[in-house]
Design a protein that fits this description.
The protein is α/β, with parallel strands linked by helices and 93 residues long. The chain has one domain. Helix content is 37%, strand content 19%. The protein contains three helices and six strands. The strands form three sheets. It has a two-stranded antiparallel ribbon. The radius of gyration is 16 Å and the shape is flat.
């Protein structure tokens, strides 16, 4: 029991660290936001505008999306010039 709790906490901390690392700018101070589309084309938002990136999820209350909600709550996406609205998928028609 104790070992499984440790594994869960370590997993959550690793997931959080990945979100923080992905949202950091590395001190570069970029003036625009660049994103890549599914087709592999780079898109750039002008300074001051947010680049829209949709985050698709299957269950809004699932624990695996906690890093997404935490990063959104802490303002990491906006700080990087990203507008990341969640898109709840209905997989059960």
């Amino acid at each position: 029991m104790r070992k499984s709790r440790t594994v869960i906490w370590v997993s959550l901390l690793v997931a959080l660290a990945l979100v923080v690392a992905a949202c950091s700018d590395g001190g570069g101070g970029a003036t625009s936001t660049t994103a890549t589309t599914l087709a592999g084309e780079a898109t750039t938002a002008p300074p001051g505008e947010l680049q829209k990136v949709t985050f698709a999820l299957t269950n809004q209350r699932a624990i695996q999306y906690y890093p997404y909600y935490l990063a959104d709550y802490l303002g990491y996406y906006e700080a990087e010039g990203l507008d990341v609205p969640p898109l709840a998928l209905d997989l059960h028609p």
